[in-house]
Amino acid sequence: MKQIILNEHARKKILDGTQKLSNIVGLTLGPHGRNVILEREKSLLVTNDGVTIAREIEFSDKFENLGSKILLQASIQTNNTVGDGTTSAIVLGAQIMKQAHKKIELGTSPVLIKESLLVASDYACQSIQELAKPVTTIDDIKAIASNSCASTEYGNLIATAFELVDGFNHNPIITLEENYDGLTTLRIVEGLEINAGLVSSYMIENPANTETVYIDTYVLLVKGSIKSAKELVPVLELVGKEKLRLVIIANDYSIDTINLLVLNRAKVGLNVIALKLDEVNDRTNAILGDIAAFTNATIISPENDVALSHVTLMHLGHVSKVQATMTRTRLIYENPPPDSQKQLALNQRIELIQSQISSAKDFYAKTRLNERLARLTKGIAILSVGAVTEIELKEKKLRIEDAIHAAKSAKEGGIVPGGGLGYLYAKKSLEQLDTEGARILLSALESIIQRICINADTNPDTVIERISESKEANFGYDAKNKRYCNLFKANIIDPAKVVISVIKNATSAIATLLTSDAIIVNDNQ
Q: Which class is domain 2-133+414-522?
């Protein structure tokens, strides 16, 4: 049997679900935002991460639950795109829904609202992009990271990581690990990030992070496809006998080969994962060569006169740590001896790429070579997040992770005033649009600063009025210290990419909900 509701009743249930979700998640917004305690099957989690909280929420009313789950998609997409702003996406989306629902109840067509709302969203996002200022100093990175994780100490560590791995000129690789010493520290190690993902979700060992981490791992590099599972049996027997961890990197695998690896992991406990290298043909050889130099592995290929069935330990490379997901993999090597064979091979590879850069005339080719050189020479920053308890550790790690994403987004897309002011600035571009969608978004864009003020026990109407009356550039409200100031000078800033992503994803999710006039759910009673 199915339960069905229609028209006004359906719209009201959708509205209620979005508002309830926003009321819970919105508690975490701003410098005075609170944490939420989540009960999980085997543990507790204390966090202020919007998307993490929203994923855990299930309402007893199935109809309300569907509305909240669609709004959740705005938060998830924002997280996937920029890694921050997940709470803001829910708060803004819920307010858009509330304002739009009023218009629909007065007789305005949901279809017309949807169309004009999406146009208004484009206008607002364009104005944010035009407002953005480029990130030019390490102090900008410090400010962004500190604001995101609500900690100057961790913001400084993240900025230092950017500086040490040349984060202004290249996309910095910063990874997190955990410790129970209570201290959060930073170190730089040799590392290589590659476009290679796990060939099967059954190889994921940490579902929470959708990744597998191997320590002290051997590397098998294969050029081309592994078409026969039988070819792998000798090397699997070798690592199984020695109880070694192995990561296989190849261009592709037959279904039989993947099934063999998954079966051996499940039945025998073999510590082997397989990665599919995702590179276009003309780059495959170059990337394989870089990996071979970094790991000191022999590439298994006809050119090297080495058959897969004859692989020995001598042909395998080695790394200190592997972090593999379904799309990306990081290979990390800590403290190699300067005169080791691995280091000599790596130095030769670096010299080769440098000579190729000098002779390259094509801009695209030179750019790609510089990217490869940066991967091999700039290293990976490892932030070891320290805490005394597991609950504290998880909460701290989520905040630092968001701050890293925010800093990267700022570097890529520039910065705008923080504290919700960036959203208010987007209103100016909407005033020229005489549409219902523009009027709805105009009103809803105040919701971010409203929620920040409410969490800081400050009257939001007074704050918005004071800001609107000011003629001073970047004049806004510092909720942490409860004062008005120039937000740029006070280093209260947001990444423009985050603000744009929040507006775009919130309006997209709600536009879908607005034209939904029927809900059908399963009746489990």
A: mainly alpha
